[in-house]
Structures are given as C-alpha cells and as structure tokens.
Specification:
Layout (H helix, E strand, L loop, with lengths): L3 E3 L5 H13 L7 E5 L6 H5 L3 E4 L5 H8 L4 E4 L10 H16 L3 E6 L11 H14 L3 E6 L6 H11 L1 E4 L6 E2 L3 H13 L6 E5 L4 E2 L1 H12 L4 E4 L2 H10 L4 H15 L9 H6 L6 H7 L1 H4 L1 H4 L2
Parallel strand pairs: 1-2, 1-4, 2-3, 4-5, 5-6, 6-9, 7-11
Antiparallel strand pairs: 8-10
Helix pairs in contact: 1-7, 3-4, 4-5, 8-12, 9-10
This protein binds NADP nicotinamide-adenine-dinucleotide phosphate (NAP).
C-alpha cells in the first residue's frame, strides 16, 4: 500500500479525512502519516498507531523532512486569511517541498470556479492550482463547495432574531458538508483517479437564500425571514458586530459571488468519487437542529 500523508491533521477537515481513511476505506494506521504544525494536538491518532509528523507550511526544510518517504500527499489549504498573499506563499512552499521529497501524487483542497470567483481569497486557490500544475507532479484538485457547516456560524443568531440579512440577492449556491469533502479526499488518496483531474464537490441542489432559510426553519421550527441588503449594508452590519475587516470583506465577497452566479454549480463529482450520495442541506440541518436552536445555544 502507498504511504499517505494528510496535512492539517489537527483541523476539522484533516481529522475527518483520516477517520474516513481508517473507517470508510479500511486503511491500516501504518499506511498513514498525520501531519500538523503541532503534533501534540494529535494524541488520539498517535494512540491508534498512526505516525505523526510536524508540518508547517512556513517551514520548507521541515516540510521536506515531513514529506520524505510519502507517496500520496493531501495538502489541506490553510486558514491564513488575515495577511493577503500569505496563504498562497504557504501553499507554494508545500508544493516545492513535495517535489523535493519525491511525492508521487498530490491532492489539494481548492474552491469552485477560482478563476472567476469574487471571493477575496480566490487568488490563493487559483495560484495554488497553477503552482501544482507547474510542478509537474501528478495531481487531483478537489474544488470543495462552501460547507453546509459554515451556516452554523450565523444561523443560531439568525434564528434567534428571526432575520437573515444577506447580500446574495436572487443568486443560488450549492453547498456540501465538510464530512463529505473529507470522504471524497479519502477516496482520492486511496485510489487516485487516472490522469491529472479537477473535481468540484457539491451536494445535489443549488439553493436561494429563501430556500436555505426554509430548510433551517423546518429543522428548528423557528421562523426565519430573509432580508436582502446591499454589500455595503451587510459590511456595516458585520463591522458593527465587531468582526475584523478581512472577515467582513470575505463574507461580503462571498455573497457577491453568489449574487454573480459563481457558486451556482451542481456536479455529480462527489458521487463519482465515493459511490455515495452527498448529504443534503435539509439532512445536515436536521442533524444539527439542537445546535441551531437559539434557546439551546443560550442566545
Ligand atoms: N469550503 C469551505 O466552506 C471552507 C470553510 C472553511 C475553511 N475552508 C478551507 O478548508 C481548510 C480546511 O477546513 P477546516 O474546516 O478543517 O478548517 P480548520 O478546522 O479551521 O483548520 C484549519 C487548517 O489549517 C491548517 N493550517 C493553518 N496554518 C497552517 C500552516 N502554517 N501550515 C500547515 N497547515 C496549516 C491547520 O493545520 P494544523 O492545525 O493541523 O497545523 C488546519 O488543518 C481551511 O483551512 C480553509 O482553507 C473551506
């Protein structure tokens, strides 16, 4: 069996990928390496017999050591968004280290339509995809749609007030669960598709704000009214809530991207890679209805 390394193993996606490699695809712990900036965050993986290695995309020499002896590498994109350009530099560092270390197949978590996306961080993903192609390494790019899980940051508050302010307009967005993204990544690591391929991972439907709100409402039994605002108005509200500028800009740009139709993309790539159906937003909300309920959240 090829040796597989997952970066960002302390993060939510990285952890789920490793769980799917073990539980869904039946890999032995000895086939895996879990890598993180801080391996002390991985005690339960070490306890399973999985080798842990330190991998920080700000440290190229350390990355070459971490990637040595590995056949297939999953690069989980970092969450470094506060400093423009830093994330792309980190990813390029990881790709260069992968090449030096002799990685045989590279898998990367990107985003839908990075070439025309209005989202502030789209250039990071586009630049990383280009760097992977330029490296000459065999690759699979997984363009993960916006997670269902992202709604958990705002929906409890929206449901408490009964109002969701959005600048999505009449645009549609196809989401997918983080766990399904992890399952697809694990599938690719176990059995990489032949040739260099790019997949866009989405669930089976693309929804308007009203359709998303109706699903949240049905799951929780709480009314939720969608109020359409401009990007500037949304930015004012988010700043007023105390969010840092780079987060405000990112959230407003994401809504603008929906409004422009760039997230209105449904594919069957998840099913192709995993032979299973993606979880719908309805089922995701149903499974999270306790956490979404404002009373249960103490809001
Ligand atoms: N599609 C979406 O809707 C969506 C939503 C949120 C995030 N994302 C992207 O997908 C990635 C994984 O999502 P998630 O939910 O697992 O996010 P998360 O739980 O916030 O994890 C952040 C990840 O970034 C890694 N990281 C940060 N700095 C790093 C560095 N210097 N070197 C190496 N790794 C570094 C962390 O690895 P360690 O802590 O193990 O070092 C961790 O795996 C995120 O980092 C982000 O790029 C996508």
């Amino acid at each position: 069996m090829a040796r597989i390394l997952v970066t960002g193993a302390a993060g939510q996606l990285g952890r789920s990928v490793i769980r799917h490699l073990l539980d869904t695809y039946g890999l032995a712990p000895a086939d895996l390496v879990a890598a993180s900036r801080n391996t002390t965050k991985l005690p339960e993986l070490a306890a399973l017999g999985i080798e842990t290695r330190r991998a920080d995309f700000d440290d190229e020499a350390g990355l070459v050591d971490a990637f040595t002896g590995i056949d297939r590498l999953l690069i989980v994109s970092t969450d470094e968004l506060a400093v423009p350009g830093k994330r792309l530099t980190q990813h390029k560092t990881a790709i260069a280290a992968a090449k030096t270390a002799g990685i045989r197949h590279i898998v990367y978590t990107s985003m839908p339509n990075p070439d025309k996306s209005l989202v502030t961080f789209a250039p990071d993903h586009l630049g990383t995809e280009e760097a992977i192609k330029e490296s000459g390494l065999p690759y699979t790019i997984l363009r993960n749609a916006w997670y269902h899980d992202n709604y958990m940051m705002s929906m409890p508050h929206n449901l408490q007030t009964g109002t969701w302010y959005t600048a999505m307009g009449t645009g549609r967005i196809a989401n997918i669960s983080r766990d399904d993204c992890a399952r697809a990544a694990a599938a690719v690591l176990v059995d990489p598709p032949i040739g260099n391929r790019t997949f866009t991972l989405t669930s089976a439907e693309s929804l308007t704000a009203e359709e998303i709100a109706a699903r949240a409402s049905t799951a929780t039994g709480k009314p939720l009214n969608v109020v359409h605002v401009t990007g500037d108005q949304l930015a004012e509200g988010l700043k007023g809530a105390g969010l840092p500028d780079f987060v405000v800009n990112m959230l407003v740009s994401a809504d603008a991207n929906v409004a422009a139709g760039n997230f209105d993309l449904v594919t069957r790539d998840f099913e192709t890679l995993t032979d299973t159906k993606p979880q719908s937003l309805t089922d995701f909300f149903e499974g999270k209805k306790e956490q979404m309920n404002p009373e249960k959240q103490g809001l």
